[in-house]
Design a protein that fits this description.
Number of domains: 1
Number of helices: 11
Shape: globular
CATH topology: Rossmann fold
Strand order of the largest sheet: 3-2-1-4-5-6
Low-confidence stretches: none
Helix content: 40-55%
CATH architecture: 3-Layer(aba) Sandwich
Mean pLDDT: 91
CATH class: Alpha Beta
Order of helices and strands: HEHHEHHEHEHEHEHHH
CATH superfamily: Glycogen Phosphorylase B
Length: about 210
């Protein structure tokens, strides 16, 4: 009674199937630019989607972009992808949802996302630096999540209301600095608990053994 055990966040086993090389080949990216992953969950994050589309052309000059928009904004994102100049289209992979998140996470050098617990649980496994935009209407847990990573130099926090004005500068500063990304990658990787599921299972087995039949 009263015992607390910290195990880390349990991950799907298939996430480990993707190496960086295999993932970049999956998306057909060349090695001349870093890769930015943008994701907002199954329904998406409208403010993030709209900010990315507003600055998409200039971002594609600097990086390849994997954009998982969610279902609600997909028609707008799909139209924007179709209207890109031909020279930029190969560097932009947009989709409403991905069944291969392991590939997207393994290919990325930086991720832009909300700060939900399940999402953030995956980034340390890949050592993936993050720009986090806490959802402003979800109590305060997303801010707490984001603060935890930012305080450990694994993430940068950007407030939702500042997306349109600050996003290009924040992304460009990070994507253009290999040293900064490597430092953030190491900080994020240090937080990983790759055997969290095993630890949880072990605790459950131990607890079950303590109970009378």
């Amino acid at each position: 009674p009263g015992r607390l055990v910290s195990t880390g966040y349990p991950l799907r086993g298939d996430l480990g199937n993707w190496s960086r090389e295999k993932a970049t080949q999956r998306f057909g990216f060349s090695a001349d630019k870093p890769v930015l992953l943008v994701t907002g969950g199954s329904k998406g994050a409208r403010s993030i989607n709209m900010a990315i589309l507003k600055h998409l052309n200039e971002l594609l000059e600097l990086a390849h972009v994997i954009h998982i928009s969610g279902s609600l904004d997909w028609p707008v994102v799909e139209r924007a992808a179709a209207e890109l100049p031909a020279r930029l289209k190969t560097g932009y992979h947009a989709m409403p949802y991905s069944h291969e998140m392991g590939a997207a996470l393994a290919a990325a050098d930086l991720v832009l996302s909300r700060a939900g617990a399940s999402t953030l649980g995956e980034y340390p496994f890949f050592g993936l630096p993050a720009v986090l935009v806490p959802y402003p209407y979800a109590w305060r847990y997303q801010k707490v999540n984001a603060d935890y990573l930012a305080e450990r130099n694994a993430a940068v926090i950007l407030q939702d209301e500042l997306l349109n004005s600050k996003l290009p500068g924040v992304l460009k500063a990070l994507l253009s600095s290999k040293a900064k990304l490597e430092a953030m990658r190491a900080a994020m990787k240090s937080l990983a608990h790759p055997r969290a599921a095993d630890a949880i299972a072990s605790q459950l087995v131990e607890l079950a053994g303590e109970q009378p039949l």
